[in-house]
User: Fold Fe2OG dioxygenase domain-containing protein from Crotalaria pallida.
Amino acid sequence: MVKNDPLRVPPEYIRSTPIHEGPERCLLHLSPEIPVIDLSKLRKGSTEELRKLDMACKDWGYFQLVNYGVEEQLLQGMKDATVHFLKQPLYEKQKYTMPMENMQGYGHLQVHNEEHKRDWSDSLLLLTHPTQCRDLSFWPKTPERYKELTDIFSSKVNQVGVELLHYLSVLLAMNKDVLLELHKEPQVYFDVNYYPPCNQPDRVLAMSTHSDENTLTMVLQDQNDATALQIKYKGGWVPVTPKPNALICNIGDIIEIWSNGKYKSVEHRVVTSKTKVRSVHEVFMLPGPNVYIEPLNHLINARSPKLYHKIRVGDYANVYSNGEKQGRSQIERIMIK
Ligand SMILES: O=C(O)CCC(=O)C(=O)O
Ligand SMILES: [Fe+2]
Assistant:
């Protein structure tokens, strides 16, 4: 777990080359071009907004979602409760320690990257849906409202995700329910990532470069973290400047596979800061472990041959295996050469 003393960075976190060096430049000037999608316009049937969503998923694999209709009071309540939880002494948080064999609870995720360096972050990871699969022993008991807020927050954001799946199904020339139905028994995880300040931001990453091994990720960012999350785009890194209370949404590997590469699961990383504490709330969706995934038949043709092998979600997604999380190594493993 990340130490409270930011001045002492243990060697297992320190990368051999500076983060901001190398061929991949920081493309700060492109930050305002990250697409912003207005869910209230999609709900009103705007074809222009639907076209923007299509372009966002093809080109960036990322977009900021605004006007999605979850009350600000709930978002603020969730953020405040998390600050309360994180500020508690370590022994309080260790009551929910993530065991080796289970990807739930509070802890330091195992991350493997080319240098075997660790990430400067802690996570609180909870399976929230299907509700009968919840393991409440990992859900924080303090502050008192944490369980209730986690339940409401993850359910509402998941509902937004379900709506997005409807629009994506239509854009992929299917009935609106198909992508959700392909999940069979959708799994939803709630995840808080906590990134304390770090004294060596030039050599330490808060989260290594990776793509998400799920279908959709929706992240509620802090307001003061302008350049922490960075997206790979046109050979460089574009920092995300979050709009107030926007959900930063990204396409995961499984949608890339279903769409036969039409929609992109884009690599991203999180950089550290010398002064700022950051925590984000994520909701991520994926099919049940026994679902087999492969490109959808109607998206395969002579001009667009099948790009990925069939695989069982439980053998693919990190969350079921605590496996490697390195760039796009996972999806590249199943690409048809
Ligand atoms: O901290 C963030 O903004 C994103 C974290 C992330 O990419 C992840 O948890 O997969
Ligand atoms: Fe991610």
About this structure: Residues 193, 207, 212, 219, 221, 229, 268, 270, 280, 282 surround 2-oxoglutaric acid (ligand 1) (CB under 6 Å).
